[in-house]
Specification:
2 copies of one chain form a homodimer.
Chain A lengths: L28 H11 L3 H10 L2 H4 L7 H17 L17 H11 L4 H21 L2 H13 L4 E4 L15 E5 L4 E5 L7 E5 L7 E10 L2 E11 L1 E2 L2 E2 L3 E5 L11 E6 L2 E4 L3 E2 L4 E2 L5 E2 L5 H10 L2 H26 L3 E2 L9 E2 L4 H33 L5 H32 L1 H4 L7 H8 L8 H13 L11 H11 L11 H12 L10 H29 L3 H7 L1 H26 L3 H21 L1 H6 L5 H20 L1 H7 L14
Parallel strand pairs in A: 1-5, 2-5
Antiparallel strand pairs in A: 2-3, 3-11, 4-10, 5-6, 6-12, 7-8, 9-10, 13-14, 15-16
Helix pairs in contact in A: 1-20, 1-23, 2-5, 4-6, 5-9, 5-10, 6-7, 6-9, 9-10, 9-11, 9-23, 10-11, 10-19, 10-20, 10-22, 11-13, 11-14, 11-19, 14-19, 15-17, 15-18, 16-17, 17-18, 17-19, 19-20, 20-22
Pfam families (chains A, B): ACOX (PF01756), ACOX_C_alpha1 (PF22924), Acyl-CoA_dh_M (PF02770), Acyl-CoA_dh_N (PF02771)
Family (chains A, B): Belongs to the acyl-CoA oxidase family.
Main location (chains A, B): other
Chain lengths: 658, 658
């Protein structure tokens, strides 16, 4: 048969897809109640996905070559589109449901299987379709969204350039209005202006949303985007040079590529002009006067991508933890005196200490993700545009994305090592996950840059639309306007207040597991770090005229401020989720998990707390003891806790699990 | 052409091999002097390798499929064997040089290129050939080593079983002596007894060294090894079932597989009987009476594998740091006020804080690795077998392997992220490195198990040959015999003593960068952790009759003891290397790197030092300030520092470096 020539690795192919006739999943009562909590407000979408999505279809064989994996992803994505998967987020005028929060939950459920598929889906439905939807006018919706929804016109999102990754404002590509022909001329003036890492560009995309500097007359109006056809009948259109990024660290099924434009012309109508465009008389017009504010409004409309990436990362961490924990309660190693069998891995304290705090953190980040998703829905569905709320949402999305992706990478690696040699075998489900999730640390914004963005939002209290990393603006604002930090609680304030009040009436002996004490510790760390940062910047500004020095000298402090803020936001979401949980046994378990999340954080940061006299040496030792005790307690209920993380065992794609 | 059918991914293939006509490398004086220091006592082997090894031949195209990568590795290994690469470690009686230390240096140089190739080389020449050499008698050497050296008989090392990873004593495979036929019967009694992850087993090996329980008469004499032919003309021999482990997290060029034996018979002469065998009259005989001591003597002879793995990991970390640092001085991102160009990545403090402490640690671990290699040569080449010295060597090898592999995995990932999206493209040299190095965390001993082994050695002062993780023995020993920790310095004691004395005469203000203070901090932490561990075990032993509880409850403390010990050993090696450096400028740079290594360690562990009143809050803050200053100073000389890490730029295989 002619097809056998592509079957070049049959001897090393592993088949991990479980039979689709797998028996229905049995979940304990506690597991079901925990899953109910973790599923959050969008649990209906998640439960539907658990009934309808089929691991036999959606788990990718890790032995596929790059061309095979790309084909596999393409076919699966078409299958999803055929079943109406991608339409939820679009306006009702084109048959969508205008349900942005729901698209995040849908994306997270798809991330339970294969990250190439979810990234490809996210690029087409989320980034490309989302840009058309958010940045385009109704006529763009009518013309282009049906083809997005049906996947008739696969799209890509051409923002990043070789020379410009996180610094979107510096893009070099130009979109120049030509009044002679009433066209937009798309051009890459330099090699560095070549779009790169563009998912879908290498093979599939026929349309691209291309970001570049909009030039009308002699004036540059800043970054805008246009829809540009890039391929027809599988070939690049004239003036467009397409490259293939080739082998990557993972995401074998995503055809990332490069796009270079040589004076490519599209009609003026292709400019996505919701926030700014060219009028019939050939002049620039925008509903937003300030170019800076316009830029952030446009980028802000795309915040959902970052939220989805954070969510997919946390889901991936939960998957890895589910695999490693289930393995740790079946795998025995080493005899112990007085025991008939060798000891289960999870009965070793060292193994508990690896997995259980990570599980607690995965629960915490999931609750924070759910809270952020609801905030996205509130802000973006609000009738009036609230710029400060939008800016706060973006910075929180940036922070949670940075924290969640870093956690996922560490945790998947930890899980792979916790499974020993078996963890290194692709058929056990951890290595491809690790390779694929890796990219999230730098895609949709480099994590370090995102944390700086968050810190800037905190320092300026979201009040001013200073540029993404406009150091001058940030330093000046900190010097001029910082009036002390305000802990703006992100979830039900009375609940937090009540817990803190209650703790303040207790003696230290009683408060180790007291949530009010936990909240106080996190809040006071955040306030102190932010206030001392502002003071340092103010002092440096007096010493030097160079705002870069003031910015750069404090950069480690800036990152700490962002991290401590996120720790507090995540804890608040956990506290609110416990409060919302109506099942008594589940609430008790969530309480223990939250204790472990907090105490592990305090232990890891004990240097800070001791240095700032927030914790005594005895207290620090008590924290370590309490962590060990909590690990032992949670070990008892570990199977329901794993069930709570939401993966039916047949979804894990791990050959070693019995 | 018929060969085109294997060229199935030409469109995504990247070619990273530089032209072999690359110009000779230019290295600065300071870079050359630093490289001289880092090359250590085996610098002649390393310099020869830099002249003779050809990156165009030895850097693997990351786009190769698994079958292609295996073929590539096989061809390259034969090429190395043809040039006499593998012979250095074997006895002079078969044409070798009996130079074990030299083989480590050779292995490390090969690890500069491709880890699949180096692992395959290590399996054949190191593990297989090393077992024949160390565990066999002269007649085994004469019969088998020439085929090892020429690669006429590719070998594998069949130790690990499905059911038994780190716990070698528990292997289930049996080697049963049959007096009727004077043969050894090799048998896998259960599925769990199947050998797995065996490099070379899936495709290439024709011989295996098989480890199993030697049964003579009715008596089990513990783990021994025999040479077993496993394949002829590419097919498994009768009674042997060979499987392929398939796709792994990396190491695409290594054919890992499974071996199961069904009553396979080999002549008695195939038993590797240097430490124990069957005599002509069919009885068991050994020069070592204690079975426990015999077991450890046999395993101890294989210590070189762990040393090589640690070395390859540190080399890999140096490679990743070389790539990321060279990128960070060519890549610019974000404007800054008052600057004409965008800012170089390495001019951001956050970026310096990522790369420079890691570079300092890479230097430190390299010096520790060099010291360990010399100790290996001393111990194994000594005329008299010194069991305590051997045991100390093994535990230190275990500790350095654990520390170096964990560091490499973290650091390569850090470097990949520090290069943003470019870091995720395989052609830039980081992703395959990350995937390949990953395995080292659990291969040649799981890192957690190895650190426990080290801690046990420290607690028992290497005095007793208690089983690898014999908890009962360890607890009993700690209770009975622990008489306080003794800091046994691993390098020139007078030098260390002098530095410590000098520091003790200074006030705290003056000692932040004082090596004596650094040494004191590391020594006092180690002593305190070890002593308090022994006290905890003693107290627990009074509370409970169950030694597993005493062992398990203190497991986090055990791991801490091992880590703090290794920190001290690594620092001592750094101090000795600085002392040995004769170039003044290089010595000054090494001094700054050593400062950064120490202060980063103290900062990361500041919680411990504050909790134990070894450091004041003010001191902890001063440490952080000093780190930032050191980063700024070292940034100035960063290119020579990178050159010192020993990679000519053409060896980095990174397309993005200009």
């Amino acid at each position: 048969m002619s097809t056998t020539t592509t079957q070049h690795t049959p001897d090393v192919r592993t088949s991990q897809a479980p039979a689709s006739t797998a028996p229905a999943e049995q979940v304990s009562d506690l597991g079901a109640a925990l899953r109910h909590a973790i599923d959050g407000p969008r649990r209906e979408i998640r439960e539907t996905a658990r009934r309808e999505l089929d691991p036999a279809e959606l788990l990718r064989d890790p032995g596929l070559s790059i061309p095979e994996a790309r084909r596999w992803v393409r076919d699966r994505l078409q299958g999803l589109a055929d079943r109406g998967y991608g339409g939820r987020g679009y306006p009702t005028t084109v048959g969508g449901q205008a349900d942005l929060g729901g698209t995040v939950a849908e994306f997270e459920m798809l991330a339970h299987f294969d990250l190439s598929l979810v990234v490809k889906s996210g690029v087409h439905f989320g980034l490309f379709g989302g840009a058309v939807s958010s940045l385009g006018s109704d006529r763009h919706h009518q013309e282009f969204l049906p083809g997005v929804i049906s996947l008739a016109t696969p799209g890509c999102f051409a923002m990043t350039e070789i020379g410009h990754g996180s610094d979107v404002a510096a893009l070099e590509t130009t979109l120049t209005y030509d009044p002679e022909t009433d066209e937009i001329v798309v051009h890459s003036p330099t090699e560095n202006a070549t779009k790169t890492y563009i998912g879908g560009a290498a093979e599939d995309a026929v349309l691209a949303v291309v970001f570049g500097q909009l030039v009308v007359g002699e004036e540059n109006h800043g970054v805008h985007a246009a829809i540009v056809p890039v391929r027809e009948d599988g070939r690049a259109l004239p003036g467009i040079t397409i490259g293939d990024n080739g082998v990557k660290g993972g995401l074998a099924g995503v055809d990332n590529g490069t796009l270079r434009f040589d004076q490519v012309r599209v009609p003026r109508s292709m400019l996505l002009d919701r926030y700014g465009g060219v009028t019939d008389d050939g002049t620039y017009a925008s509903s937003i006067d300030s170019p800076n504010r316009r830029f952030f409004t446009m980028l802000g409309a795309l915040v959902r991508g970052r939220i989805c990436v954070g969510g997919a990362s946390t889901v991936s961490a939960r998957k890895a933890l589910s695999i490693a924990t289930r393995y740790a309660v079946q795998r025995r190693q080493f005899d112990a005196p007085g025991r008939d069998e060798e000891v289960l891995l999870l009965d070793y304290l060292a193994h508990q200490r690896k997995l259980l705090p990570a599980i607690a953190t995965a629960y915490a980040l999931t609750f924070a993700q759910n809270t952020l998703t609801e905030r996205l829905a509130e802000v973006q569905e609000a009738p009036e545009r609230d710029l400060a709320a939008q800016r706060e949402l973006e910075t929180r999305a940036a922070g949670l994305k940075a924290v969640s992706t870093a956690f996922a990478n560490e945790t998947i690696q930890l899980c792979r090592e916790a499974c020993g040699g078996a963890g290194y075998m692709a058929e056990n489900g951890l290595t491809v996950l690790r390779q694929d999730a890796d990219v999230f640390a730098t895609f949709e914004g480099d994590n370090t840059v995102l944390l700086q963005l968050l810190a800037k939002g905190l320092l300026t209290n979201y009040k001013e639309m200073v540029g993404d990393l406009d150091m001058l603006g940030m330093v000046q604002f900190a010097v001029r306007s910082f009036g002390g930090s305000v802990i703006a609680r992100t979830v039900a304030n009375p609940l937090i207040e009540r817990l803190i009040q209650a703790a303040s009436r207790r003696s230290e002996d009683e408060t180790l597991l007291d949530r009010g004490w936990h909240l106080t510790m996190f809040e006071s760390r955040e306030s102190h770090v932010l206030e001392s940062l502002a003071l340092r910047i103010q002092a440096l500004a007096k010493e030097t005229d160079d705002p870069f020095v003031a910015f750069n000298t404090t950069q480690d402090h800036v990152l700490l401020a962002a991290r401590t803020h996120m720790d507090r936001v995540v804890l608040e979401a956990f506290v609110a989720a416990i409060d919302a949980c109506e099942d008594e046994a589940a609430r008790a378990t969530l309480d223990r998990l939250c204790d472990l999340y907090v105490l592990s954080n305090l232990e890891a940061d004990s240097g800070w707390f001791l240095r700032h006299q927030r914790m005594s040496a005895g207290r620090a030792k008590a924290v370590t003891r309490a962590i060990n005790e909590l690990c032992g307690q949670l070990r008892e209920d570990v199977i329901p806790i794993v069930e709570g993380m939401g993966f039916p065992q047949s979804w894990l794609g791990s050959a070693m699990l019995r």
